[in-house]
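Illustration: Arginine decarboxylase.
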Amino acid sequence: MKSTPLLDRLLQIEAEDITSFHMPGHKNGKIFKKFHYKNFKQHLANIDTTEIIGTDNLHKPKEIIKQAQERASEAFKSEETFFLVNGSTSGIYSMIMAATSPGDKIIIGRNCHQSVINITILGDLTPVYLYPEMDIEKGIALGISPEEVERRLIENPDAKAVVIAYPTYHGFASDLKRIAEIVHSHGKILLVDEAHGAHLGLSHRLPMTALECGADAVVQSIHKTLPAFTQSSMLHVQGNRIDREKLKFMLRLHQSTSPSYILMASLDLATTIYQDYGRELMEELLYHVEVFKNKMKDIEGVTVLGTELVGKHFIKAMDTTRLWISMHHQGIDGYELERRLRDKYRIQMELSNIYGVLGMTSIGNDKEDFDRLYTGLLDLSQHKEDKGKIEKMPFFSYSIPKRTFTPREALYKPKKKVLLEDSIGHISGEYFIPYPPGIPILIPGEVIEEEMINYVKTMVARGMEVLGLKDITCQRIEILTD
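Result:
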């Protein structure tokens, strides 16, 4: 048989016995060893089926899928829950289009997932942006000011909805309850991208869930922090501000007509584990995290972010299951730290930037995982580096650019490619998304400023990633010619 490069690589990675501090939340299937429900993993090929007698239909559920979604609704405390097999993106598309009509205006956090920007194109919406507070040195987004939300609502009384990411990738939770009160006092709809918070309901020591805070619709990436397969998500709804029938139509519009029964079954199993064992497993996880962080305090040269930012920068609470680790002051940047942890200690983190690495823990992690991470960091700390001080993240003001066209209007305008330095003052046809922090500093339809160009050039020169440009060398950008 000829080689199968993708499958072969995945099998190779499986054989390496890598400790997972990245998504998905089942941690290389480790949690299924505890909850090997009817040995379901041995039957994956056989249960990969379609709509036949006895399997129901996701787009018109009457039997087992209806029952599974109702169980999930009970577990996650929603009024109604929908399974998503096209990832959280399909849920974000559906809830926003259910809450709006073409030509409407919506207020969105600038640190939202790119799918939120994309749906303004598909739905012909006009976005109004909110910037979160920023930690420039670490390259991460912090909290969103409730007062800034209200200011935008007063300035845009015709806006139909507000879209907020809660919590952030790094675990920071804004005062969403206050934001919900403000949004609803203005008669608007609050939509929440809770992709990174499906586990929050498992402990009072974690931030409140978006539903508890009063959100009208919430999308959760169950696969990120709970034991479901990648691409498995849920959409939760409560209250009467969203037309449920319109929402169901949008879900049919944005999801496959051949939904994966394996993904839906994994959501069903994740619901059972969440409801029956989740709180106990979360207490174990929080204990392991606390022990790990306390041990790390004694290691010179390694910094682990705690809860010291809570109460500052509009951060109401912190998801302590996230591990933000830096050896920046010891001469090891985040990219190098991620590589060494993987190559030498068989530990894979979720992401890295010049400052540090982010670890995503879940109820699938155990004591052995934390012991391995501690041992690796301890060993690395004992090998002093002589690289000099690592450069800080370049400064950027994070002001909202002037917009000439909406993203949808910009998409259909004629364009041409020019050198970055020749684009200043022109209207962009592409995105600038420096990573970190993953927040667009330029969106199609906005005017290109000199500060943006200087920032991107500095990022590229330092080997950092800039997403959104078709030119992989990041030397040219498309501008509108009309």
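Reading the tokens back as a structure: The first strand starts at residue 19 and ends at 21.
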